[in-house]
Amino acid sequence: MFGSASQFSAPAKDGIDVPSYVRAHSEVQAQFTRVGHATRLADCFETGGLRLKLPNAEAVCEGVLINTAGGMTGGDTARITAAAGAHTRLRITTQSAEKIYRAEEIAASVDVAISLGTKSRFTWMPQETILFDGAALSRTLTVNMTECASAMLFEMTVFGRVARHEQMGLGIFRDRWRVRRGDKLVFAEDTHLDGNMFETLAHKAVGDGARAVATFLLVAPDAEARLNHARELLRNAGSYCGASAWNRMLVARFSARDPHDLRQDAAQFISRLMRTKPPRVWAC
User: Has keyword Cytoplasm (predicted)?
Assistant: First the structure.
C-alpha cells in the first residue's frame, strides 16, 4: 500500500533544538519456553519505559506490553524482541492504545522482531496506534518462523482522535512487514503515507475517507482452508473489509471512518476465526 502527498515538515517550536538525550529509548527482549503443558517466560531484559507483564501464564502465555511514558514523540525509539521456543503458545498485546505525538524532525521508531520455533503458535495483537496531528512514525514488524510454526499478526492504526473531532493534518506513517518461513521470504509489505493525512486518506484509491486502517495476517499450515469462513465472518461488518489467501497465508484488510467500528469488527472476526477470546485488556 502506498500513498503520498506534499513532503512532511513539522515546524520546530520557537527554533528550540531538543537534545537527543531527552528522547526515550526503550527495549524489551524476552524468551519463552515450554514447561510441561504451559508456556513460561525463560528470560527477560527491560530498559527505558517499556515493561512486559504476564497476567495470564497458563497453557497460552499472554504478555502485556506497557509503555510507562504514556506515548511516543519524534526521536523516541521502542524495540521489542521475542523468541518463542518449540511447542510454545504465546500471545502478546499492549495495555492500551499507543499514542504517537507531534514530531519536530525525526520520526518515532517502533521495531518488533519475533522468532518462532518448531510447532510454536504466536499471536501479535496490540491495541490500536493513534497518530496525532504532526506525528511521524516508522514501524517495522519482522517474523522469522519455522515451516510448521503458526503466526497471527494484527495491527490497527488510527489517524487522529475521532471521538474529539480531531483531524490529522501533516504527518508521516511508514509501516514495514517482513515474514520469513523456513528462511524464505513469504510476505513483504510497505506502507508509506506522507503529507496531509486527512486529504490523502480522503482519496478513493487510498482510504475513501477512512480514519482507521488495519491488517490481519495468518501464516499457518491451514490458513488457506479458512478463507471461506473468513469471508463469511466479514459479510456483515460495519467497516470496509475483505480477505484473500495464498501460499498457506490468509490476509484480511479493514478500513473505516469510525475506529470503533473497525476495532469491534476486527475483534469479533479474530475471536471467531481463531476460536479464542481477545486479550483481556481489550475489554477494558
Answer: yes
